[in-house]
Amino acid sequence: MKNQISPVIALEKPRIAIFVSFSGSGGVERMILNLTREFLNLGVRVDMIPVKQESFHLDLLPQEVNVIDLGASHNLSSLPGLVRYLKSERPDAILAAKDRANTTAVLARRLAGISTRLVLRMGTTVSAAMAGTHPIRERIWYLRMRMLYPSADAVVAVSRGVAHDLKKNAGLPPSLLRVIPNPVISPELVTMSEQAPDHPWFQESTVPVLLGVGRLTRQKDFTTLLRSFAFVRRNRPCRLIILGEGRDRGSLQSLARDLGIMEDVAMPGFVENPYAYMRRAALFVLSSLWEGSPNVLTEALALGTPVVSTDCPSGPKEILEHGRFGPLVPMGNPEAMAQAIVKTLDAPLEKSLLKTAVQAYTVKESSKKYLETLLVK
Predict the structure, then answer these.
(1) Is a pLDDT exceeding 90 seen at residue 111?
(2) Residue 341: its H or E element
(3) pTM here?
(4) pLDDT given at position 9
């Protein structure tokens, strides 16, 4: 191995299989890429097993990664191929990410009849994500987790809030859970942030630009962000950029028109380099109804950008230390969010202080903890 990771890691040139559904362009995909790159830096071989091959993320993987094609189109159809892979290749450990991939990985290891160490990653607060769904569907979801997840060797929760949720609602024993901060902060993040954003508003430094980033879905609640921005804009010049794409684009644009703020709201869609926007924004706003550990909030702080966040389950309260590093406001409350935005614009915290909030979220530190969980005697 190139580096000594931990006394508990005793395998020579270990091989880790990562089974994941690259189903979007969000935080999970970026975190898996960050982990993979750092695993390679630390002398670990990586087999990447995507549920399906149709993802631009595969093009971003280092050449040293061995990409396994299961010939599948969804999680269920990937099961036979994953079983065959495990029987023939027998990696030292498997890391599965996202709930459906977790389920498939547990079943595949059982069917393969091998003892390869299996670690599951949970990146969202399940109870909040299931809120509003049919009670029968919710019960089936938790029943599946109670039946299958304890078969794994460990379950990584990305925040203490996610771990508590898994204990309380899925009945997972504390001994199974490991809280590991996401691998967010890297030299590449800083380098990318230094590039010029492709938007004219950042050339006019006198008008502050607020920024939101995420999928345009109910979870991110950009409706509340738009309404709060309308309150702020009544009393001062400012602009809002929302980066991301999703099924709520049409309704959000209609709301912006109805609020009379369309000329000061931009929704350019998904951009490959949101960090250039984050670095230059006057303020980053997280308006989510639920998260696990919001990477975009961590990224903004790492770049020294002031933040305002909802106190949603889970993650923001931990990252911001109960409001020390940025205001926490009730979910779905535009007035409270607007007040916090104004106060933060008027008296932003020092960049150096904001950066100290997320020191535990470096790629190096997080990857080391993942390896300590994956590769044990």
Answers:
(1) yes
(2) helix 334-346
(3) 0.88
(4) 47
